[in-house]
Write a structure and sequence with these properties.
Elements lengths: L1 H11 L22 H6 L10 H20 E2 L4 E2 L2 E3 L4 E2 L6 H23 L3 H21 L4 E7 L4 E7 L19 H18 L2 H16 L24 E2 L7 H11 L5 E7 L7 E7 H20 L9 E6 L6 E4 L2 E4 L3 E6 L4 H18 L3 H17 L1 E2 L7 E2 L6 H15 L6 H19 L22 E2 H20 L1
Antiparallel strand pairs: 1-2, 3-4, 3-16, 5-6, 7-10, 8-9, 10-13, 11-12, 14-15
């Protein structure tokens, strides 16, 4: 057991847990405000604070409350639901995707604190930065309860991988990750946050783990060739699927650009595996500079998604389906070696979810910064306006506020869209008004519906009259917190 745990730390840079002893009576996570204040809705945040500070304080309050109510134990087991009216934490555990939302929120807060410090608010930084970096480390370390190892036959090789399962288990590194029990988008959201964590803290293990998971995700790229020798492209939802989803492609664009930027001007190289364009069968390898490799893949993924999933409404469909002849995974043998074979997909199908447009906004903005190709400006300007028109509806719940659908997981999806607007703001000024719509919604809910430190699933409509029907997803609270932290940046930068 001990040797296996040590191997995980070596292979993936899993940090030792850092426990910061808080000289406070406010619990393990060190509340910014006391439990009594939370219970009575008497937070210390006031409307007299400047908007950037108020937003960041609210982000921290939401995160602290969620950790207190949804998480238990030093291994940070996350309960998916908590009801602030009945004070019941349901037994269902959060998936790795939901758990990753906590890392996203903490990263957003850390970025906000650093920006506050750079703008002269050293007191806020000094008070909170250390404990949130320690919290980030704990979350990262305990994500290993979702890790597992398996052998994958991909389009270009067979290799053993240790990646994140959908579900948490009781022993680190022992999760079942075979077949449909791991998906590429879960890895992508974590890659994004691990790179962000590296940029915020300088801790090399975050970057090493992000690059390992990036290699796994890009191993899923369909490198098969069509009749003309062009690469088919696209990443399936997971190794157990053939359909190619917007959510298993778009989220990878920005992290790849960030990796390109981190290695730009350096000589580091990486192995590139591909299929010969002439015979459309032979698997080949070559060494490429990391900076070129990562940028090339960011561009390829962006182009694939735009070409296949952009709808007539100017937003992004859910996935490419229409499997021919069916949706079973198939294999081929080339020179005695087994490889995964491409599946023909014919139709863009499914709901146009807000986050699939959000990742393309962020990806397009990052690609423009890296390449200065003005085609990305045109893309993200059109997508910004089309997505707000498609997903935001004025006056459906509160007369002067925009509503975004809250069914299913849309609260988290909408946060990805909002982050996209923040990323395109330097290029497309209209995004400012779209960000303000999110700010108004959060503030309306905070001022009118805050209960026991919680915001409701429907920010504008509020709570259900039946107290038993007010279970809140932990990832939604983290999504609200991340939005507040991003909006803190917005207030400082505009």
């Amino acid at each position: 057991m001990k040797n296996k745990a040590n191997k995980l730390r070596r292979d993936f840079g899993l940090c030792s847990i850092i426990i910061v002893a808080m000289a406070t009576a406010t619990g393990f996570y060190g509340f910014i405000v006391s439990p009594e204040q939370i219970s009575n809705n008497t937070f210390s945040v006031t409307n007299q604070e400047d908007p950037a500070t108020r937003n960041l304080n609210r982000a921290m309050q939401l995160v602290d409350q969620t950790l207190e109510s949804h998480f238990k134990g030093e291994d940070m087991e996350m309960g998916r639901f908590y009801n602030p009216f009945t004070k019941v934490r349901l037994s269902e555990r959060g998936s790795v995707w939901m758990y990753g939302a906590s890392i996203e929120a903490v990263n957003a807060i850390l970025k906000g604190l650093k920006t506050q410090n750079e703008n002269g608010n050293t007191a806020l930084y000094d008070k909170h930065y250390s404990r949130y970096t320690a919290l980030l480390n704990q979350l990262y370390n305990n994500a290993a309860y979702y890790l597992g190892t398996f052998n994958l036959v991909s389009f270009t090789q067979t290799k053993e991988w240790t990646v994140y399962a959908v579900d948490r288990v009781n022993e680190k590194g022992k999760a079942n990750v075979t077949g449909v029990l791991n998906v590429y988008d879960d890895q992508m959201w974590l890659i994004r946050e691990f790179i962000e964590a590296y940029k915020l803290t300088g801790q090399k293990s975050y970057l090493e783990h992000a690059e390992y998971l990036t290699a796994y995700v890009l191993d899923g790229w369909d490198s098969g060739r069509d009749a003309t020798g062009n690469e088919i492209g696209g990443i399936p939802w997971g190794p157990g699927y053939v359909t190619k989803h917007a959510c298993s492609n778009g989220p990878m664009i920005s992290p790849l650009v960030w990796l390109h930027e981190l290695y730009k001007g350096k000589s580091d190289k990486i192995e590139y595996r591909y299929i010969d364009a002439k015979d459309k069968k032979t698997r080949k390898t070559k060494q490429e500079k990391k900076s070129d490799y990562y940028l090339s893949f960011a561009q390829k993924i962006y182009d694939w998604q735009k070409r296949h999933l952009l709808t007539a409404q100017g937003v992004y469909a859910d996935m490419m389906g229409g499997c021919q002849p069916d949706c079973k995974i198939r294999y081929e043998t080339v020179k005695g070696v087994k490889y995964r074979a491409s599946t023909v997909l014919t139709d863009p199908v499914g709901t146009a979810y807000s986050y699939n447009s959000g990742t393309m906004l962020s990806g397009g903005a990052d690609l423009y910064r890296a390449t200065k190709n003005k085609a990305y400006i045109a893309d993200i300007s059109k997508l910004s306006d089309a997505s707000f028109q498609h997903f935001a509806k004025l006056g459906t719940t509160v007369s002067d506020l925009y509503s975004f659908t809250t069914k299913g997981f849309n609260n988290w999806f909408n946060g990805v869209l909002m982050r996209g607007y923040m990323d395109v703001l330097p290029i497309h000024e209209s995004a400012s008004s779209y960000l303000e719509a999110f700010q108004k919604n959060l503030d309306y809910s905070y001022d009118n519906h805050l209960n026991q430190g919680y915001l409701p699933t429907n920010l504008l409509a509020g709570w259900n009259e039946d107290s038993e029907k007010n279970n809140v997803e932990a990832m939604f609270m983290f999504a609200y917190a991340a939005q507040y932290a991003v909006l803190s940046q917005f207030e400082l930068e505009r």
